Amino acid sequence: MTDETPKSALRKMLEDNKSFSEELPPGQLDSIQYEQNPYITVLTCCDSRVRIRAFLADPHPTDNVFVIRNVGNQLAVTSGSVDYGVRHLKTPLLLILGHTRCGAIKAASTDYRKLSLHLVQELNGLHIPVRGMDPGTDDDVQWLQAVERNVHYQMDLAVQRYAPEIAEGTLAVIGCVYDFANLYKKGIGKTVLLNVNGESNSDVFTKSDLMDDLPADLVDSVLPGSPVPQ
Amino acid sequence: MTDETPKSALRKMLEDNKSFSEELPPGQLDSIQYEQNPYITVLTCCDSRVRIRAFLADPHPTDNVFVIRNVGNQLAVTSGSVDYGVRHLKTPLLLILGHTRCGAIKAASTDYRKLSLHLVQELNGLHIPVRGMDPGTDDDVQWLQAVERNVHYQMDLAVQRYAPEIAEGTLAVIGCVYDFANLYKKGIGKTVLLNVNGESNSDVFTKSDLMDDLPADLVDSVLPGSPVPQ
Amino acid sequence: MTDETPKSALRKMLEDNKSFSEELPPGQLDSIQYEQNPYITVLTCCDSRVRIRAFLADPHPTDNVFVIRNVGNQLAVTSGSVDYGVRHLKTPLLLILGHTRCGAIKAASTDYRKLSLHLVQELNGLHIPVRGMDPGTDDDVQWLQAVERNVHYQMDLAVQRYAPEIAEGTLAVIGCVYDFANLYKKGIGKTVLLNVNGESNSDVFTKSDLMDDLPADLVDSVLPGSPVPQ
Amino acid sequence: MTDETPKSALRKMLEDNKSFSEELPPGQLDSIQYEQNPYITVLTCCDSRVRIRAFLADPHPTDNVFVIRNVGNQLAVTSGSVDYGVRHLKTPLLLILGHTRCGAIKAASTDYRKLSLHLVQELNGLHIPVRGMDPGTDDDVQWLQAVERNVHYQMDLAVQRYAPEIAEGTLAVIGCVYDFANLYKKGIGKTVLLNVNGESNSDVFTKSDLMDDLPADLVDSVLPGSPVPQ
Fold it and tell me: Complex ipTM, two decimals?
């Protein structure tokens, strides 16, 4: 838990925003005054350790990531918001992004009925992926397996939902895990790519049109070395 | 709409993450490996122009903002996720953050029944704040009034929900508008503060315990000069 | 409000069930032991004055109405349950049934933000139909117009959702108002038919394949005499 | 699956309603024209075999059961509607009613991700009760155990939510299973009572103020003989 009080937290937030505004290069936001043009829709967890910054080289001239966040990066909870990015703003990429050591995944494996009804309802959405996990375990292998199952599960739901756009070639949906713990041994803060348009075999998806001309070192950097045992 | 294709968008995302991971100072994330300690829970819109970076001086040693995002920054849509931040992680501050020129607010003022059922359902949540707005207007005054009404509306819901924590003094809930368009004439990228714990009169809330010893220039920087006419 | 106490209410309920079970003709439920075969899915309001009995001649050999009920007979709130009836049980008919003097419609026209967050969320779904109604009015014409707009609105959502089944001819979706107040002058307890598969012109839908060989007096009994002015 | 077509189903429904309206005794609905006064709020499943008639002796002068129905009789799915009955209409009794051979319970024990996203979302709510059940089993003991766990689970959620009303003595919440299959050997169409205000020990709840002066044969008729083994 943080050491901040409501008072100190408020001050920190206001000061950070003041600095941000004062240091913003003139004209930097001119192009986004009347519309947004994100290149990617990201559905991810609320966890404060998940950094959008990790997918947004800074300073970009404009922000360009349309972001939906709820506990456990769940499509069903806010699929309307995801529709807004994919179908209304027509971003060509939808990223479903889980992360290592996800507290929501762990909570969903326990008997959480004493939490608030709204939180119960959201954790319910992690039902299928947490099956078989020891309730509340800290074991990194089991925990990461459940995180991965959740990414594949959300991918299944998304690939069904956006099948027309994927078939037309106007959308790719990808499933990743953001790894701030370096459990995949690819570097702290790296994401690994687990699923592309519903395909989870990396031998297949790396040879697809979508990825076949990416530099080998870039491809290598996003594939888990040895897969997490399931 | 963006010029990117699924293929180019994927490459951009992977490259940005690769750079991020490679440039991360060693040890920077050590302290967050086993738990997160956010000082603030932020409920905001998905709009790509809303930057969490605006409330997160960078480089911070760790990320410390727990973030929920859905179209129109609505409590009801993902109140379970907000509960997770406020009641489980016990952040001392909850920020409800609208923004200028919010597309969701505009959409909710129109007859949107032809959108997907999930998006219909989420836009429905903006019912009360968009009342009285000309459907689909681009008029900045009307539009910003509806954005403000939505912030106050979400604040009403949140202040009711978290009344015990506010009464105990362990939580403050604040309502702001992030202004990338400088409609408030306080600077591009500034937020203005409209509501503190349900109080919308700035003469009152700036004299509250929460704010009474903030530097005058900081207070001044967050208050709208002349209020938007309602 | 009822005069019953928790104690007397419990007794009444238990006694009514005891009588029901004791008076049930032997063998009457034999055919439904292992599966249900409803001929209709009904989405209606929770209002205690809405009687499923009105669509279920008694004694039927078995119950045959699959029923979803929420305040304001809203598709979005429990569309999964409606899917279960339409797509899993494959009932050939989906009835969306509003009713006269619907309290949910009236409540949704007011500023209801002080209600529970869950109820707020459900009333939000009546956003579009209550537009233009005087908040909280008891005027039967205005109120019934809003009830009708809600039926047409839910029909729009349903006809979009079940377009494939309607096109195949395996499903008809109809929108009705149950009129316990005889506002349509067709008899207390009658329903009137307002919309068939998205068509709201009764000259058209009564001549469709679905209705063209119904007895004239039956057709006449379900059409409102003079339409409610809109 | 039913043998009816959309056409025949429509005719049946219209004819049943016509008869109902024509046979309604004059004046029978006079008292409910301007308000409803239900004595009970019932949260139950959509299953066509669940008869509200089982708790509503007929002919009652008026309907008096406020009913919420979704697959698996889940509080979280439509808790706003339940609030409307309990807190707005102030019924003194809330009945959470599961039933034998519930198809939703069985479906929730399988991997249902290929169903519609809305149905996935609703089945997710049955996560905790179906744990440990063999996926998709037809075994009556296992299946009924899961039905019972769901009743107790929904009761836990409801007792938490309505704790103030229960403490004041203005509300009792009870959990029952409607047994059209006579698995409890108390008669076809009987309900058994499993939980009163969170208490699941029948020795305790039958001696509570709420039940202590009920006739012994009535109490006996609602208690399962030997409990289902857990």
Answer: 0.94
A211 half-sphere exposure, CB direction, 13 A CA radius = 25
Query: Is there a contact between C43 and C75 (Cβ–Cβ < 8 Å)?
Result: yes
Q: How far apart are CA A129 and CA A76, in angstroms?
A: 14
Whether residue C9 and residue D56 make contact (CB cut-off 8 A), yes or no, is no
Sign of CA dihedral C120, C125, C129, C131: positive
Residue C89's closest CA among B82, B73, D71, A204? D71
B/D interface, count of CB pairs below 8 Å = 3
State which residue of chain A sits closest to C76, comparing Cα positions: A80
How many CB atoms are located within 10 Å of the residue C92 CB? 24
Percent with pLDDT over 70 in chain C:
95
- B6 and A32 within 8 Å at the Cβ level: the answer is no
Tell me the torsion sign for CA atoms C132, C136, C137, C142.
Answer: positive
Tens of each residue's pLDDT in chain A, 230 residues: 778 888 888 888 888 888 888 888 888 888 888 888 899 999 999 999 998 877 776 655 566 889 999 999 999 999 999 999 999 999 999 999 999 999 999 999 999 988 998 999 999 999 899 988 999 999 999 999 999 999 999 999 999 999 999 999 999 999 999 999 999 999 888 999 999 999 999 999 999 999 988 999 999 989 987 655 55
Q: What is the DSSP letter of B229?
A: P
> Hey, CA dihedral for A77, A79, A81, A86, is it positive or negative?
positive
pLDDT tens for residues B30-56?
888 888 889 999 999 999 999 887 777
Whole-number Å distance between alpha carbons of B220 and B230? 22
Task: Name the burial class of residue B111, with classes exposed (0-12), middle (13-18) and buried (19+) by CB atoms within 10 angstroms of its CB.
Answer: exposed
| Residues C35-44 pLDDT 10s | 888 999 999 9
Q: What angle do CA C104, C106, C107 make, to 5 degrees?
A: 65
The residue count of chain D comes to: 230
Rounded Cα–Cα distance for residues D20 and D24 (Å): 6
Strand arrangement of the beta sheet that strand B190-196 belongs to: A190-196, A172-179, A93-99, A40-44, A65-69, B65-69, B40-44, B93-99, B172-179, B190-196
Instruction: Give this prediction's pTM.
Output: 0.91
Cα of B5 to nearest chain C Cα, Å: 29
Do strands C93-99 and C172-179 pair parallel, antiparallel, or not at all (unpaired)?
A: parallel
For chain D, which chains pass the contact test of at least 3 CB pairs under 8 Å?
A, B, C
3-class SS letters over chain C: CCCCCHHHHHHHHHHHHHHHHHHCCCCCCHHHCCCCCCCEEEEECCCCCCCHHHHCCCCCCCCCEEEEECCCCCCCCCHHHHHHHHHHCCCCEEEEEEECCCHHHHHHCCCCCCCCHHHHHHHHCCHHHHCCCCCCCCCHHHHHHHHHHHHHHHHHHHHHHCHHHHHHCCCEEEEEEEECCCCCCCCCCEEEEEEECCECCHHHHCCCCCCCCCCHHHHHHHCCCCCCCC
DSSP state of D86: I
**In whole angstroms, what is the distance from residue C92 CA to residue C41 CA?**
8
